[in-house]
Amino acid sequence: MSVPHTFPTLRTPGGAVPPDAPAWNRQRPSAMPYHRYRPVHERVAVPLTDRTWPSRRIERAPLWVPVDLRDGNQALAEPMDTARKRRMFDLLVTMGFKEIEVGYPSASRTDFDFVRHLAESDAIPGDVTVVVFTPARRDLIERTFAAIEGLPRSVVHLYTATAPVWRDVVLGRGRAELRELIRDAAGHMARLAEARTEDIRFQFSPEVFNLTEPDFVLEVCNGLTTLWDACPDRPVTHNLPATVEVATPNVYADQIEYAHRHLERREDVVLSVHPHNDRGTGVACAELAVLAGAQRVEGCLFGNGERTGNVDLVTLALNLHAQGVDPMVDFSDIDVIRDTVEHCNRLPVHPRHPYGGELVHTAFSGTHQDAISKGLAHHARQAEASGEPAERAPWAVPYLPIDPADLGRTYEAIIRVNSQSGKGGIAHLLHTHHGLDLPRRLRADFSRTVQTATDDSGREATPEDLWELFRTTYLAPAQEGPVTLSSWSAEEIAPGEHRFRCELRTDEGAGHYEGKGNGPLAAFTDALAAAGTGVDILQYSEHATAAGPGSPAVAYAECRVGAVTLWGVGRDTSVLTASVYAVLAAVNRAAVNQASVNRVVAQGG
Ligand SMILES: CC(=O)SCCNC(=O)CCNC(=O)[C@H](O)C(C)(C)COP(=O)(O)OP(=O)(O)OC[C@H]1O[C@@H](n2cnc3c(N)ncnc32)[C@H](O)[C@@H]1OP(=O)(O)O
Ligand SMILES: CC(C)C(=O)C(=O)O
Ligand SMILES: [Mg+2]
Fold first, then answer.
1. Domain 368-473, what architecture?
2. DSSP SS3 for 316
3. Ligand 3 centroid – CA 284 distance (Å)
4. CA–CA separation, 584 and 449 (whole Å)
5. 104 CB under 6 A from ligand 1?
6. Which of the listed residues 4, 131, 190, 288 has the most CB atoms within 10 Å of its CB?
């Protein structure tokens, strides 16, 4: 896709800076037609003033009710077929949802057939209740009841829009007429249920509750609580949707608290919410609504649904998990959940989607990587000290609100490297993928090399790329440089006295050399000095790359060779060989470095 570099259709705000604007804010009036819209307080009354929800806490999970198979499904260009619906249903059951809206059976044969499929198979466990959705039309209610015939337990969910614009423009009915329409439908439902032996409960949604006069909501809902003869054992669900999200979440919370406090026979009512996400605050609306008294939340996995979606149940439940509250639903394999949802909906989940997106546990930036890497190491130490397994120990790793392992993710993708990464992240990857524990100064040194490479390419460096860069920079020069060791041996000739014998090849030819020192490396540098290469080892360390015998050792040597100081690294199953290669690699790097300096000088650079 080609993207323009100029934007002729955009109108840069050009009016005068408002006279009351502070000096630090130079924003100017835009030409956007914002005056076409009215604020929510001009559209609906919200009578609550003594709200209590702001000082409450969520200490237990509400009843989650996924509506993927109805509200989510009705938003899809290609609705789910029975196979896809069944896959989604099985996923929801496996995750532990106990009430699941499964369709709008009067809408289509597909939806009807799926409910029949559930009724005629053993797909519904004994502790799961399905919900079916119906408008307030007798013929469609009858079709809905035909769909649930034989289901041992179900909830029939009646809906009608109640807000003024919908009453006037869509339904063409005043308040009284609409109330009668709803009561007629509800009465019909009650009669049909009475003729059945199955356990059938009722739910009502005043669609667009959030723009409906509160007294009308109460009038209609209270009327249905009575008409349906609700009781604590057979409560009615009043589901108060933000069908189109129109206000900041505090307004919805006020509306829910008002309903919570004024609905009659409150113990006979399950107060449910159903936020959509038009303003991008569906999750906040649901959370504040629970603080305000909601006991049940309808939503979809990963927020599929009409327009910008239904509220996302994954985020809601895992937000609780991250606060130390049991979400009462299992997310321990988030990738399987996401893959299944993507398959059923034929829609991708955004890589930044909270908790489940592909990139949400990944840090590219240097200081974050450094903090995560230190945090993970600290977590492992703390867990070990406390005797708890790391996956059960309290979590406090910077930048990772929860342990990705809780969601079945590994730590592999947590740190990814590009030009904005730093030494901490790079060292972390070399450690996790190759068992290397780079000395601090070598980390900084390699980080500069990586930065040059990623700046040049503009791309990410994968762990394989990093290893290749590390290998060619620090390891390979031992074998590929101007100075090579054709053969060598080291021995302790007296306590604390070592001898190193070797055949060295340089640009000037081959020769046999010998050196002595208080250790094999000192003896090797003595031999190198004899060959005309003065080397000081400034820093040296070594370690095994994995536990157990036979795992390669790695040695790091920071050497001053002539005027330059450079690192070399060696890797071999023998620690001595690794250390000799490390020094030799530094020597060769210095030689190559000197050669390029000489070239530049010769060219007059
Ligand atoms: C916010 C929500 O998610 S609401 C759920 C929305 N979901 C769907 O619409 C998906 C399934 N819907 C359908 O398959 C169809 O719309 C049906 C089968 C329900 C009805 O189809 P049709 O009879 O062709 O009507 P249509 O789709 O045009 O709906 C508009 C009619 O329903 C009426 N209507 C709208 N909502 C309701 C309701 N809750 N109860 C009763 N009637 C309603 C409208 O007033 C309009 O009536 P009119 O034709 O007399 O003007
Ligand atoms: C609950 C129903 C009516 C709904 O999907 C909505 O209002 O968004
Ligand atoms: Mg909806």
1. Orthogonal Bundle (1.10)
2. helix
3. 16
4. 20
5. yes
6. 288
